[in-house]
Amino acid sequence: xxxxxxxxxxxxxxxxxxxxxxxxxxxxxxxxxxxxxxxxxxxxxxxxxxxxxxxxxxxxxxxxxxxxxxxxxxxxxxxxxxxxxxxxxxxxxxxxxxxxxxxxxxxxxxxxxxxxxxxxxxxxxxxxxxxxxxxxxxxxxxxxxxxxxxxxxxxxxxxxxxxxxxxxxxxxxxxxxxxxxxxxxxxxxxxxxxxxxxxxxxxxxxxxxxxxxxxxxxxxxxxxxxxxxxxxxxxxxxxxxxxxxxxxxxxxxxxxxxxxxxxxxxxxxxxxxxxxxxxxxxxxxxxxxxxxxxxxxxxxxxxxxxxxxxxxxxxxxxxxxxxxxxxxxxxxxxxxxxxxxxxxxxxxxxxxxxxxxxxxxxxxxxxxxxxxxxxxxxxxxxxxxxxxxxxxxxxxxxxxxxxxxxxxxxxxxxxxxxxxxxxxxxxxxxxxxxxxxxxxxxxxxxxxxxxxxxxxxxxxxxxxxxxxxxxxxxxxxxxxxxxxxxxxxxxxxxxxxxxxxxxxxxxxxxxxxxxxxxxxxxxxxxxxxxxxxxxxxxxxxxxxxxxxxxxxxxxxxxxxxxxxxxxxxxxxxxxxxxxxxxxxxxxxxxxxxxxxxxxx
Length: 600
Ligand code: ADP
Ligand code: MG
Description:
Layout: H1 3-20, H2 23-48, H3 56-72, H4 78-83, H5 87-109, H6 116-134, E1 151-152, E2 155-156, H7 160-182, H8 185-192, H9 197-202, H10 207-233, H11 243-257, H12 261-286, H13 293-307, H14 312-319, E3 347-358, E4 361-372, E5 376-380, H15 387-395, E6 402-407, E7 410-411, H16 417-423, E8 425-427, H17 440-447, H18 456-464, H19 469-485, H20 501-513, E9 519-523, H21 531-546, E10 550-554, H22 558-562, E11 567-572, E12 575-580, H23 582-587, H24 589-596
Parallel strand pairs: 5-10, 5-11, 8-9, 9-10
Antiparallel strand pairs: 1-2, 3-4, 3-6, 6-7, 11-12
Helix pairs in contact: 1-7, 2-7, 2-10, 2-11, 2-12, 3-5, 3-6, 3-10, 5-10, 7-10, 7-18, 8-17, 11-12, 17-19, 17-20, 19-20
The site of magnesium ion has 3 residues, from helix 15.
């Protein structure tokens, strides 16, 4: 069965549900839809972006209270009262307010890292809950009654069977746009967040913007759920917006499958139905009233995290064989614009007096080197000599303690890794940093993120509504070209994590090339490659050199280096001990001493 057929069957079943099912089941389905809309935001935020939030219930409350107040209060200023005359205007007002709140809260909390971020979300989640409960305007803990139903052209959505369609249209629109977004340029940038900030920024992704974007999108989806809820219930009190419910939303996303959009629906279904069932059955078993389902959920959560890290959705799809169509690549689309390259022989990179201290350790000490366009230069030295640290200084991953680094004549001091990448410097990492669950194609496409970038807002909107297919095709065609170039064409659609380490390194080379660089920094690109693969890599590097690209590489395999490079710098204990042509360096007593030093 194709996914399309399953989807159509699902839509038909949904459309017929209100005609066939009893009121109780419809109510349950309505709740599932409302919860899934919130969980969907968490899939994007937590599952894909890796940012945990316990506070989504507060955004649901923001949407619900905004519309409830606007549509029921009698003593509002004229313009607010006018908004309150339409439930749809009230939705827009709720979304605008949520947008403002989410941007403000996001700017404050998203700077936090590690465990501090989830703790921060608990903080503002609890604060907003108490605002709802304590503001006189919002009816305090007794709440607001008399909320009108939603209406379209005079038709009022009264009762569960009517609002059912509205809820599920919202949810399915959310699922489809989120899925689209994840398949777009901005979506790749969002997914790159999990590969670590250093990698994403070095590929030209503005990680702060991407984090804020998914935080805002998740908040807006929660707000829409709150709006639907308020007009379904027709009264409000603060209970459904407490931190407990916020935890339940997170449960749904994690149990369902935090990385998959349909996981949100699965999680909401499983949690809502089992909660209903447990609330009926557990008090009978225990013999007294109480919220015993919380205990069961806690245990279930631990089991899921132990046994099915990625949630139930991947388990389910394993049973149902889906015939996925691989992406098509159209080599005929116009290629991406290329940047102007310096002429061969022009100095591209100039490092002088670079020093990096980690506390008391001087990892790089007064280092100097230059690389010209059309030149391959090797940086060698024993383990711990400071080669990778030098790369990090050049590419802006680390800020040099001292020194002057110039790229294409301009000083790099104070520039971020992303700004440096945008200038035309591209790199690979000694410890490969890629997204193992994403395809080779998608991984390499991240490298081209900075090229012809339409900007965040346009990128998100166009991605969600598939208005950028042509640009996306051009970007994928470029990625495919680089994949072929490094010899990975057979693995184009494989998961990057399934490749052996040597091929993962080649993937990183392709990803770096997708940025159309003037300078390529390769940190041990040949490590783990087999003999023939090494020869192919050397061949590729020669070709790049002939195109005028400057290449600086760290490599341990002397045979690989000697036949290939123009000049060699040798480092030991953070310092340059020697430089020159390969044959010359090979015979230098200082180099022999450094390599053979401690070994008798
Ligand atoms: P190489 O790549 O030449 O093997 P590195 O540049 O990785 O060497 O490391 C040089 C020295 O700096 C090593 O002693 C290493 O332990 C230290 N070092 C590297 N990165 C850090 C860091 N982030 N914090 C502290 N020490 C570091
Ligand atoms: Mg290293």
